Amino acid sequence: MTISNTRPITPDLIASHGLKPDEYERILNLIGREPTFTELGIFSAMWNEHCSYKSSKKWLRTLPTKGPRVIQGPGENAGVVDIDDGDCVVFKMESHNHPSYIEPYQGAATGVGGILRDVFTMGARPIAAMNALRFGSPDHPKTRHLVSGVVAGVGGYGNSFGVPTVGGEVEFDARYNGNILVNAFAAGLAKSDAIFYSKAEGVGLPVVYLGAKTGRDGVGGATMASAEFDESIEEKRPTVQVGDPFTEKCLLEACLELMQTGAVIAIQDMGAAGLTCSAVEMGAKGDLGIELDLDQVPVREERMTAYEMMLSESQERMLMVLRPEKEEEAKAIFVKWGLDFAIVGKTTDDLRFRILHQGDEVANLPIKELGDEAPEYDRPWTPAKSPSPLATNDIPQSDVAEALLKLIGSANNSSRRWVYEQYDTLIQGNSLQLPGGDAGVVRVEGHETKALAFSSDVTPRYVEADPFEGGKQAVAECWRNLTATGALPVAATDNLNFGNPERPEIMSQFVHAIKGIGEACRALDFPIVSGNVSLYNETNGQAILPTPTIGGVGLVKDWSKMARIRFAAAEETILLAGAPEGLGSHIAQSVYMRDVHGRTDGPAPHVDLAHERKVGDFVRDLISDGLLTAVHDCSSGGLALAVAEMAIASGIGATIAAPENDPIAAFYGEDQGRYVVTVTADKLDAVAARAAVAGIDLPVIGKTGGGAVKLGDAKAVSVDELRSAHEAWFPAYMGSDLAPDN
Predict the structure, then answer these.
(1) Which element (helix H / strand E) includes 71?
(2) Among 92, 350, 497, 600, which residue is least crowded by beta carbons within 10 Å?
(3) Pairing between strand 708-711 and 654-656?
C-alpha cells in the first residue's frame, strides 16, 4: 500500500513542529524517506521535550526510584507504593503551565483531569488532589484574571469529579508574570495485586478506544508546551484542551468496573499527544506493533484529518488492549455509562506503527524507534555558584512586631482560605485535616486507623540562590511537613519547572537541583516514583524562578494520634526541636529580607540531611507516643510566622522568651530542620529526657496562653489582629465576591 502524503514538507513546516534541522535529518535516516505530514506530526509529538524528556533523561536517571515499598517507579502512568494490608497508593504530579497561562480555566481544569486519569488508569480510585500554583506579581495586569480562572478551573473540575483537594501552594513573584505554573497532583487507592499497566501483550488483539469523542481541541498541545512564549501567545489558544469532569467521572466508574471483568490486558491514558503517544507507548513497551484505523475513531467534528486525529488532546479518553472473548461484556459497561467503546486497531508482530485513514496508509513507522531513538541531549551547563554570605553587620533591623504583622498579611504569607474554600475539601468524607496545616491527611477507607498524608513544597528563591541546596530543601521541607502530622514519609513525585535548557545557566540550575533532590531523597529514604519535567518556561527570554516542586506521601498508622498545627490549650510549654544555637540565624533569602526590606541577596540556608533525619524521626516518635499536643514545621518566615500560624489556628496566644542573639535572626531566620512543638506540663520531663538521650536540641522557648503573641521584648500583637491581617489579603486582592472571573 502506498503511503499517502497530503502536504509538502518544508523547512518552515519542520520548524513549526518544534523540530530542529538535525532532528529532521535523524528522522530521514531512521525511515529512509521523507515523512508524510501525519508522520511529521507524530515525530513532533513523540520527540518534543514534554514527551521525550530529551534534555532531562540523562539527569533523571540519577534519582533514587527504588525502595522496599516501591511497587512501580517512573515509566508508567503513575507511581505505586505499598502501604501495607494489601493496599497501595498510586500518585503523580504533572504540569499544565503553558495551557493555563493561555486559557486559565480550561488549562487548569484539564490539568486536574489529566492527572486524575493517570491515577485511575492504574486501577486506583482517586482519594486526594493537590495543586501548586505560582503567579506573577499581584500588581501585574494579568495576575488577578489568571488567579481567578485557574482557581475556578481547579475547583470546577475536581469538585464536579468528586475528589477532595487537600493541600497545595499559591505564591506570587514577578518572575512568573509571563509564565505561570499550574502543577497538579492526584493520589488514589488500589489493591497491590490489582494494578493495571500500559504494556501491550499478545498479537492480533483488539485495540479499543474508550471514553469521549475526539475533537480538534488540543491539537499540538504537547509541542506548544515544549516551547517558550513570545508575542504570538494568543495564537496558541486553540492548542488548549477542553475538559468535562462529568464525563471523566463516568469514565472512572466504567474503567474500574471494566477492570473487574478481566478484559483488560493493557490500558493507557490519552494525555499529551493523545492517540499517538498512548498507542506508541503501549506497543513499544510490549515489543509489538500497532495498526490503527482512524475511520473507526469516534469523532465529534466533521472532516477531521488523520493529522488532527493523531495529535488531538481531547480529554476523557483511554486506549486499551482487550481480551477478545470479553468484548461484548466490556462494551456493555461503556454503553451503560454513556461512553464510546470502539475497536480502532490491533496489535501486530512487526514492530510497525501503521495508521490507516479513508483507505490510505498515512503513516508507517518503526514503533520502538519513535520512543527509543528520540534525541537525547547532554546540554552544556555552567559550574555551580553560591552567593557570598551576608556580613554580620548587614542584617537590616525592623520592629519585630510590625514585621510580623506585615509578613502575616503579605501576598505570599497570608491565608489561602479564599483559594481552598472554592475547592471541595471534604467530599468522600475521609479528609482529616483541612488545608492550611503542614499536610493534608485522608483516612484510608476500610481501615479503622490508617491514613495518608500529602504535601507539596519548594522554595524557588532558595533554588535560584543555590540550586543544589534549594533542591535538597524542597525534598526536606516536604518530608518535614509530612512528619509534622505524624506520618512516615514513604515516597515522592516531582514536577521540575525550569526555563530554556538550551541556555547553560538554566541547564545548570536543573542539573544542580537534581543533584540536591537526589541526595536528599537518598538520605531521607524518600524515593521519587513518578513525575514530570516542564522546561521552556519563559517569555521573551525571561525565565521563571527555578521551581522543582516536590509532592510527597506519608503513611499514618493511627490517625487518632495525628498532630495538628493549632495550639491545643493554654499553659502548655513551647519547644523548638532541632534548634540551632540562638534559635535562628540564617536570614539571607528569608521572606523577612524579601518582603520587609526588598532584598533577595545572599545564600540559601544549608540543609543538613543527617540533622533533618534525626530530628524528624525524633518528632515523629513523640507524636506516635502521644507526647506532643501541637506540631508545626518551621520554614518560610522562621519561628515568628510558625508561632503566629499556630496561634491563629487555635485562637490561643503565646509568649516567646527573648533570645540571646539578634532577635531578627532568631525570630525570622529560616534555618532548616526545626519544628515548633508543644507539650503539657506532666509530659515535659519525659520529652526532655528523650531528647537528651537522642542528642536532640529541644530548648524551651515559651508558653501558650492569653490572647496575644509576644515575641521576646517586642510589643504583644493580639491573635485577633494577626488573624485579621492573615485573612484579609486574598479577599481584598480578589474582591469579596467569590464568583469566578473567567
Answers:
(1) strand 70-72
(2) 350
(3) parallel
pLDDT of residue 2: 54
> 3-state DSSP call for residue 253?
helix
Segments of the chain with pLDDT less than 50: 1, 222, 225-226, 233, 235-237, 737-742
Contact between 427 and 164 (Cβ < 8 Å): yes
98 part of the active site: no
Please say if 50 is a catalytic residue.
yes
How high is the pLDDT of residue 223?
A: 52
Any idea which residue has 487548569 for its cell? 108
Return the H-helix or E-strand segment holding 111: helix 104-120
* Amino acid (1-letter code) at residue 231: E
Contact 356, 362 (CB under 8 A): yes
Alpha-carbon gap, residue 37 to 676, rounded angstroms: 61
**Number of CB atoms found within 10 A of residue 140's CB:** 16
The arrangement of strands across the sheet holding 70-72 comes to 70-72, 79-82, 87-95, 181-191, 125-135, 165-172
CB 192 within 8 A of CB 86: yes
- Quote the Cα angle for 504-508-512, to 5°: 170
Question: What is the reported pLDDT for 736?
Answer: 54
Cα-based angle 117, 121, 122 (whole degrees, multiple of 5): 130
* Rounded Cα distance, 343 and 208, in Å: 4
Residue 5: its pLDDT value, please? 62
Only one residue has cell 510558625, namely 642
Q: Structural domains in the chain?
A: 9-47+198-374 (3.90.650.10), 58-195+417-560 (3.30.1330.10), 563-731 (3.90.650.10)
Contacts of 641 (CB under 8 A, 6+ apart): 404, 407, 408, 413, 591
Cβ distance 666 to 583 under 8 Å? yes
Contact (CB, 8 A) for 616 and 672: no
Residues 6+ apart with CB under 8 A from 670: 584, 586, 587, 589, 590, 591, 605, 635, 636, 637, 638
Whole-model pTM? 0.95
- Are 62 and 518 in contact by the 8 Å Cβ rule? The answer is yes
Q: According to the model, what pLDDT value does residue 3 have?
A: 65
- Asked if 90 and 187 touch (Cβ cutoff 8 Å), the reply is yes
683-689 long-range Cβ contacts below 8 angstroms, 24+ apart: 683/627, 684/573, 686/627, 687/575, 687/622, 687/627, 687/628
Give every CB contact of residue 420 below 8 A, 6+ residues apart in sequence. Answer: 165, 168, 434, 435, 436
CA distance 137 to 177: 6
CA distances 9 to 49, 236, 687, 728, Å, are: 22, 22, 73, 57
Are 457 and 478 in contact by the 8 Å Cβ rule? The answer is yes
Helices (H), 96-231: 97-102, 104-120, 143-161, 221-224
* Burial (CB count <10 Å: 0-12, 13-18, 19+), residue 671: buried
Can you tell me the distance from the alpha carbon of 85 to that of 449, in angstroms, rounded to the nearest whole number? 12
Residues near 340 by beta carbon (within 8 Å), at least 6 away in sequence: 209, 210, 211, 212, 213, 298, 334
Q: Give the span between the Cα atoms of 78 and 52, in whole angstroms.
A: 16
* Torsion angles phi and psi, residue 228, rounded to 5: -80, 160
Closest CA to 674 of 550, 577, 740: 577
- Catalytic annotation, pick one of 50, 98, 512, 726: 50
Residue 404 main-chain phi, psi, to 5 deg? -60, -45
